[in-house]
Please model this.
Amino acid sequence: MPYHHTGGSKVEGLSLVLGGEGSGEVVAAGSGAMASYFNGKCVAYAGWRIGCGVWSEYVVKSVRGGVLPLNEFLSLEQGAMSIVNP
Model:
């Protein structure tokens, strides 16, 4: 069954992960100061492009925009909601 996103276009024959905002723990990070800062931390993130949904087990994100570190007082659920409802 094709999925119709808000633009009205059809996506057929492709695997499509839904979800616009999510949260989780960073389990691996690249090199550099920013990447090492986020490694092991809980973050909230957004999937703004079609087909880049966040309702999957693992997500690859850039630390340059779209990743928000969470402190110990916020749950993962609250963090995910903070992306869409700041």
